From TrEMBL:
Its cofactor is Mn(2+). It comes from Marinithermofilum abyssi. The keyword Magnesium does not apply. Mn(2+) binds at H112, D135, H137, D139, D216, D218. One of its GO terms (biological process) is putrescine biosynthetic process from arginine, via agmatine. One of its GO terms (molecular function) is metal ion binding. Gene3D superfamilies: Ureohydrolase domain. The gene is speB. Keywords: Hydrolase, Manganese, Metal-binding. This is Agmatinase.
Amino acid sequence: MRFNEAYSGKVFIGATPELNEAQSVIYGMPMDWTASFRPGSRFGPGRIREVSLVLEEFSPYLRRDLSEIRYYDAGDIPLPFGNPEKSLDQIGRFVAKVMASKKMPFGLGGEHLVTWPVVREINQYHRKLAVIHIDAHADLRTDYEGEILSHATPLRKIAQLLGPENVYQFGIRSGTKEEFSYAEQERIHFYPFEVLKPLKEVLPQLKDRPVYVTIDIDVLDPAFAPGTGTPEPGGITSNELFEAIHAIARSGVHVVGADLVEVAPAYDPTEQTPVVAAKAVREMLLGFTK
């Protein structure tokens, strides 16, 4: 799969037109084939890019400007509609090319299943990879209604690949009894309900390790992000999410890839969900790009 040399739509604010100059590559994974409640997250990557124009390029939190880093927006990976297996394969092959070019992959979802092939590819390049997962849902099922390729299963697959002790989950407030039991019995670093406090406590353990960061927008309370496929009341605030991103950025953790998933624009006519997602992406780009 080639990089898109001429993305026909809008690009994320401040993106360089030159791939060779880039330190990281933004790409969309427009897949929602396994949505169990509300589809529509396949439109998330495009809308996040479009609304990013409302943002300033300067982050007063990190005191950095997007002009200080170089990132290329490769557009959306063309995925076969309704075919999860083939879609995941194409995402994996795209990310393999990003990794071979020695650039950091930065994905925009799409449903959370898209994280699975990304981590699988990055794991081939980095020993002792750990995953920081910030989400409302555990995503630790073996299957959903008999389907093993589901947005409810990616963290179970990742835990089995990396070892449960290398998975760190924060903000979880929804899951089956089996999922919660699995996390506790298999010694996943599992922190339900809270994000910032436990995250700050464990980050020293991850210093200098390669880490992949995956954020599901539904970790936010629906009051802050109603535009998502599976909203879950009782979440964190936008500011808490930004603080978590900044804590990772300042911790010395070696972030080798990241994604933000599950923005479904159709369910938020105010557009506050894609806007908060775009701001989170800006902070992640500035915080994780060294």
